[in-house]
Amino acid sequence: MVKSLGQITDFPAEGQKGGAPAPNTLLVIGTADGSMQSLLATGASKEGYQTLSFSHTEQIDADALEAASLLFIFVSDIPQQALLPQVAALIDKARDISVIPVVGYQDQEKAASLLELGCADFLLSPFSESQLRALLRRQEQVRAAEEGFVTSSPVGRRLLAMAQRVALADAPILITGETGTGKELMARYIHRFSSGEEAPFVAVNCAAIPEPMLESILFGHERGAFTGAVTAQPGKFELANGGTLLLDEIGELPLDLQAKLLRVLQEQRVERLGGHKEKELNVRVIAATNRDLRREVAEGRFREDLLFRIDVLSLHIAPLRDRREDVIPLAQRFIRQYAPQEAGHELLTESAKRAMLLHEWPGNVRELENAMQRALVLRNGLFIQPHDLGLPNPEPQAPAPEPLQEAAVEGKAALRARGKWAEYQYIIDAIRRFNGHKAKAAKSLGITPRALRYRLKAMREQGIDLNSDWLGESQQ
Ligand SMILES: Nc1ncnc2c1ncn2[C@@H]1O[C@H](COP(=O)(O)OP(=O)(O)OP(=O)(O)O)[C@@H](O)[C@H]1O
Question: What percent of the chain has pLDDT over 70?
């Protein structure tokens, strides 16, 4: 609970006085001295924000939460031991809003823990108007770039935070990850974040271009450089000048071109085939691969010096099976994309969600996107059922009931051995087996009823609906 409550104050932005909160609304919670409040309101208004101030969290109404994109909380009012839980609860309440704690110099060491909780950034108090405005602009950029990249898993959030950092550095980036994990999308995200929407983004898939053409496509050619070169053509490097060049599947580049690419990267100049003039380049190069380039080097297929050159900053995108919290948000995003007319309806049935959470997704996000497109076409009626998804084993069957004692021994080992999501399914199966009787289910799983309650809470937080009829969750 925030101490020393102040009055609710309102600082409408210029040109946005009165009425419902405007989209660029900044919520401010907690007390600060008058000069700090007006500095905040003035700085924010110059960046186009309307500021709404509340003395404590409970006063924020749903309309304000709906409209706001940023929330500042002055943490100096919060007792030390309550700080992290209180901010965590706030982040949970303000799900789609970036929460930014305003931290006093004496609390600086708290900043790292606050960021770890999921705060988008922090502001050290006292701050200047230009520091505030720089932070607001940074957040604006983050939001614009994030629009395309859906993630709600901790590993995904960490990846995005890392991507924002590497985007601001001026060095080549290597993105690794299995096929369909979103490497190209991530490259676009970094591009938008570092160079902006206006600058060129050029992607070359090194595996898709026939080898004899690769050199001229990358570096360009002058007229007459080779038979068939009837006109001069700029290469992808030149086309990407001032922006970003994505070299997708860089592991497929032949060795001789790897040498030439290395030279271009080192010298930041390119010369077209058959040309005599070098052109200065200002290109951010992002390389992407689903191969293990270190192994490629060991096996003589990739130049070590080129690997060192491109692997200055690297980002690894985890496979979807290792960030299952992203599955449902991604699915919902594809539904919005492919069936915008039905936005607002929850089309996914609980059993479809379960099937999706249990699937391994070897083709990652691309496979999920295809499954959603297919389901939207094949569904009967409004809702998407497991069999619409075209997954190999859409609705795993619950195992037959087992005697309690044996099940308990096996249950504990099984809980450890299976991954988290398989564990959830195992728990659901157990509760079903005992018709919703949780004490019996816990016993069969070899855990205490309290531990089971704790796990069920975690499952609810992951979006698993445990109250529906299929679970028969009524008795204790
Ligand atoms: N986090 C995400 N949010 C929204 N869409 C995503 C996300 N990740 C991937 N996608 C979508 O999934 C599809 C595959 O992504 P992308 O082409 O970026 O993967 P990739 O890793 O480059 O694949 P490949 O290795 O096969 O080239 C695209 O349609 C992309 O928009």
Answer: 83
Report how far ligand 1's centroid is from the alpha carbon of 148 (Å).
10
Q: What is the DSSP letter of 49?
A: -
Please check whether the two domains, 321-389 and 404-471, share a CATH topology. no
| Amino acid symbol at 211 | E
CA distance 328 to 383: 15
Contact 314, 175 (CB under 8 A): yes
Tell me, which fold does domain 10-144 have in CATH? Rossmann fold (3.40.50)
Ligand 1 neighbour 290 (Cβ under 6 A)? yes
Q: How far is the CA of 183 from the centre of ligand 1 (A)?
A: 6
Tens of pLDDT, residues 333-343: 888 888 877 76
DSSP 3-state assignment of 315? strand
**What number is the average pLDDT over the span 427-432?**
77
Region 404-471: CATH code: 1.10.10
Amino acid at 279: K
Q: Is 181 in the pocket of ligand 1 (CB under 6 A)?
A: yes
Atom nearest to 188 CA in ligand 1: 18
- Helix (H/G/I), strand (E/B), else coil: 37: helix
Say if ligand 1 is within 6 A of residue 150 CB: yes
How is residue 188 written in tokens? 């676009």
* Interface predicted TM-score (ipTM): 0.98
**Protein residue closest via CA to atom 18 of ligand 1:** 182
